[in-house]
């Protein structure tokens, strides 16, 4: 399957540059954003989750009802919904949309954030619970007979669901960079989500995930998803000027207390963010155009590595990751709607052309 593109959907115009604290969901914005992604040929859009954010299932249903092709990736923390209920909610959305649903698991990187919604397990336990949760989803989707479940975190008796996904199963994704994430994602998941790191570190992470898949006796392996925040302009010079304007704004917002991570925020507890901050110490630019000051300016809150340059530079950078083994490329900018339009117009076509050229070259070499 050729590489595919992921975006991220937010329910209103609030973004990292111009945050609108507690802004309500904006139905028109959501519809326009989702239709724009669909029209420009994005394959998926992630609906992220945090303890203070909107309900991803409702946002997902809205996106699906306004679009034709794009699939939604619902971010799900196991502590927020009982697994049999989540399995049916996802399958309901999947049926109503003709099979356009993916679920993305978040074990939870921060104890404090988890505690906000009553989750007091430690991280190892959260990953162990996630493993049970994934097994329950698949049992729910595939069992025609009622079944019992006797796990450490979940026990139930004689459950049967009449709501089956369109294609039998719904793809399951997982994001994280700790040993437990590699183990569970590698052994059980269809997709493994990573944040953009330099090529060498990305290769190491992919090798770890594939090794876990092989150890679990899988004949296939998870598709790899890599995430970037491209800063694009007509030329490289203009893009670098734009990148510095964005960085100034991120720093200004953080000083004003408008950033997701306050100035006093401790070092993040999730390994993915720790890795980004450690790599940031090595220098601002890695490889072709991977830029790290946006990581440090935000205390690595989520996907924060930028790719800076002209459409050609950004497309070539993305193709480097596709050549490395990335199957899914997530791109989301700092001005969400307008960046999605720029990516759709100028970056997706160049990357897809590069993929076609590679396929052609492979066919010719094999002939
Ligand atoms: C592609 C991707 C998307 C993610 N989306 C979310 C999200 O929506 N909400 C969230 O709290 N964490 C999200 N995360 C963060 C991790 O899932 C989280 O920190 C993880 O549970 C623990 O990370 P660790 O194994 O690296 O320590 C995402 C991670 C990746 C790689």
From TrEMBL:
Give all residue intervals belonging to the Luciferase-like domain.
17-327
Q: Which Pfam families does its entry note? A: Bac_luciferase
Example of a GO MF term? alkanesulfonate monooxygenase activity
- Which Enzyme Commission numbers does its entry carry? 1.14.14.5
The reply on keyword Glycosyltransferase is no
Q: Has UniProt tagged this entry with the keyword Membrane? A: no
Keywords recorded for this protein, A-Z: Flavoprotein, FMN, Monooxygenase, Oxidoreductase
Top-level division of the source organism's lineage: Bacteria
Q: What class of enzyme is it?
A: oxidoreductase
PANTHER family given for it? ALKANESULFONATE MONOOXYGENASE, ALKANESULFONATE MONOOXYGENASE-RELATED
**What's the name of the protein?**
Alkanesulfonate monooxygenase
